[in-house]
Amino acid sequence: MKKQWALVLFLLMTASSLVLAGGKSEAAEEDLSKQVLIVGSVDSVTTWDPSASYSTEIAYFTNLYEGLIRAAAPGSDQPFEPLLATAWEASPDGLEWTFTLRRGVTFHDGTAFNAQAVKYSYERTMELGLGAAFILDPIESITVVDDYTVLFKLSYAAPLDRIAASAYGSWIFSPAVKDKGREWFEEGNAAGTGPYKLESYKPDQEIVLVRNENYWGPKDTPAVQRVLVRIVKDAVTMQNMLEAGQADIVTLIPKESLSSVDDRDDCKVLTGPSFMNYAIHLNTQKPPLDNVLVRRAISYAIPYDDVITVSLGDLGTKAVSPIPFGQFGCATDLPQYTTDLAKARDLMKQAGFAGGIDRTLVFTFAAENAAHQAYAPLIKESLEKIGIPVEVRPILWTAQWEMMKGDPLQAQDLGALLWWPTFNDPYETLASLWRTEKKPFFNFAYYSNPRYDDLIDRAYATPDEDEALKLYRAAQEILVQEAPSVYLFDLTTAVPMRENIQGFVINPAYPKAMYFYGVKKN
Amino acid sequence: MIRYLRFITKRLILLLFVLFGLSLMTFLLARVVPSDPAATYLGPRPQPEQVERIRAQMGLDRPLPVQYALYLRDLLSGDFGTSLSTHQPVLASIREYLPASLELMITAMAIALAVGLFLGTLSARHENTLIDHTGRFIAITGVSLPAFWLGLLLQILFFRVLGILPLGGRIDTMVSLIHPVKTITGFLCLDSLLTGNWTAFRSALLHLILPACTLAAYSIGIVTRMTRSSLLEVAQEEFVTAARAEGFSERRIAGKYMLKNALGPTFTSAGLAFASMLTGTFYIEAIFYWPGLGSYTANAILSIDYPVIMGVTLLGAVFYVVVNLLVDILISFIDPRIRI
Amino acid sequence: MGSRVSAFKRFLHFFLKNPLTLFGIVLVFLFLVIALAAPVLAPYPDQGRGESLMTARLQAPSAEHLLGTDALGRDILSRILFGSRVSLKAALTVILIVIAVGTPLGIIAGYVGGVVDDVIMRISDLFLAFPSLLLAVAIVAALGPNLTNAMIALSVPWWPWYTRITRSQTLSLKERQFVDAARSVGVPAPKIMFRHILPNCITPVIVQATLDMGYIILALAGLSFLGLGSQPPTADWGVMISEGRSFILTHWWISTFPGVAILFSVLGFNLVGDGIAEVMNPKRRR
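Above: the input entities. Below: the structure tokens describing the complete assembly.
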């Protein structure tokens, strides 16, 4: 017996000495680490098909694919930047758009980029009808004028420049994928023109991007040779990866730790606006929330500052409009609701509910969203202060959506939603969330107002921007006055990274997108 | 031999029943859920007409019994379907994630057996003394600890305070870049050892320690308790008394006669614990960011990704029944008194 | 009188020999007292029920808040005290469900025998072979995450244990004289099963229930931790640990103390269960 134990002990010691003695080739490591960017990201890839992409894979797509044009990052005096198109113009009625294409560009697979490729890409996306293909609905036909000129004809006036700059549905890819089918993409392949190529992919674990040596941009760009993305679903883990130098950029750390990470000498946190906002939609079809006075009372009862503090810390700002702040069309001079319990109680009295409401209202939200989870108790508490009993009912998003899409009279009373626009245009937000729907789909306030519908429809079809903005502003004012929803807060994007990382740009038009093109490691 | 065959056949028939029942149950659950697989398949904001089209494509508009029959047909031909959220085939993904979980489980079980057998023997030999009480207390604490909480505490202690062990993951990112491990078995430690990749082995082993210890806590408790109680039971049996009368030394009695006979029940419960580990690694994999089956399933649950949930559930059941079967056979070899 | 004294002596002797069991009983007793008297014991009962105090967020343990405060400024001690009620209520409900389902089935299987016995036992084998946690998770995912569904989900794979226990108990009782007597005077079978056999099954069932309490508390906390059980603002220990998870490196107390509460209550039941097992094991009774 004793001998065996001694043997075990010996083996253990040998093993551990081997383990602890592990050597390092420091020079090689140093050299390699300059060329490799390690990113910790929460974002999974739901599809690699550029026609179908409409989710979190946007984080990586901007490196692999390019659209005709791109929405400029904040600070630019132009709304758009040329990308695969160098010039573009619309006819005065907004029905015909001509794009002049960049020359000398090749796709990752070696195919040459030209007007035919543009036509093929758009048509494939429209034909598949997946993801964000609906934004291409106005397109009636695409004509190849010559190798480097393409003409879009629309069936109704629409802002095709904003559509072409969309983060979803407007990517240009190699026509050679025709023979490969969708499975080819899902195996982890890409055929874009972007500065990086997709080297390997392990679902929900790892993505490796490698520099596209034939990129059309200036020589020696992009600077970083390889990008290794580790998909990590946990904020605490990511914070530690960053602090230990195991990651150069991470997408998420606990909000409580942002300032302490920023204070470190070897880390910094980059912040910028995002086009994402949080709102609670009130069931306007079901008493008592069919009463606009009750809805306004609720809007006055919410402790906005506390809600922001617990859910996002410094990363949230109170919403000024139903549309995310900074987005095209967001009106910044609308009347605002503040936290004012006296006013809220007064409104309840006017509505005839001085003694409170005798029914418990159901408040649902996506259970997997930590921000909703954090502020939900505050909503319950504040509404109970004005006599509205609330039951908090978190459900997984897919299940919540099914419930919301059902009969409004059976559905939730209050439903919280995180929203972001598909492309930088207010129409989609205003129409999806509040335009009259025969069958509920995303209008979770079940709001219906013909005057409002008319305003936004007219705005979308107005080619003159100033005129359109006026109409959009009027529509937003209705939404504030009628209070079908409580506009909680806009999200600020924070990207923690190592101090030596430079050139990372946050562009709110592409929420969650990480663009590695300009990134340098010093 | 015939006895074994009959026993195995009986168990396998039960397994078929279990699988059939389970598939029916998970299938029904999947249809009861207030979620639309077609919508989940399409992503965060599909359009109504897309949903209609995909529903038809996925056969969701057919009558339930037909859907179930089709599901079974696919299952029998080895097709577990495609994940709604990652759009990857379920079986391939399981194959991808399983080795990581198994590596963790086997290490944890090895720790549990080593510590548990030691503590259990110690406890039994010093019955009702302070040593025994301490041993039992450790064992019972082991089964009472919430794994998810223990994991967090160990992380704080060994990563944050002492700074000697990594927080999570399977291997250091830089190490995996500079010294990539060639996949042979999918067990990182083993693969790096086989290829003589010492740096990677060191990193993989260090990453394994905390999650394996956390996962082992419960099994340590189980093994210790069973070892102790079966040793004490065996101690009263005649052959032990006889051996004692023959004048064999206590150590020899304990080692040669008692432990061997006490191993049966210990292995049975260790086997059960091992089998349930596969589905019990959720917490640990989540906390230590271990890219195994548990993480895969947890993600699937959050998006109500039914093909994945059903696939893993069925696999878990097969694993559970098969491990139990193996343990029973193993025991009958160790201790021929036990008839199966 | 004499026998009572000796019973007391035996009792005392048992605990002197088994201090762990005594410790377990103390823990269980404390747990029950806390659960019953939480509103009286809690320093901030309203916060225990979920009321926030945003001015007192994330305070470290101090004289005012012995265990600190959480992200909504609630006193963690009060939340833990109130959390014991959630745990106790949920665990008891699960136990009652599994007893209500498992016991009658076991008695029927044992008493009627034959095909009925076979069918019931095969079905229970089926449920036993299910990976219980995974099944629970799947059920919760299907029905929606809340405490009620978590309780249902835990009960589904659990009842067969009680069927097995009562069945074997019934089998041995069936041959006893009083059952024979009842049968011979024409007492109908249901009456025999539930008048004569059921009361005699209660002891083993209660013993098993004590053994299971700890495990159920642990499993429920686990589901809540994953977000599949109780939902905020319920003061549930599992929820509290998960709420504190993102603070673990900056505000350690939020997750740590609820974990201690789970550990001690589960430990209490397990120590008692271990003690019972020690006494009950017939082979070891000298």
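Note for the figure: Chain C is about 75% helix and 0% strand.
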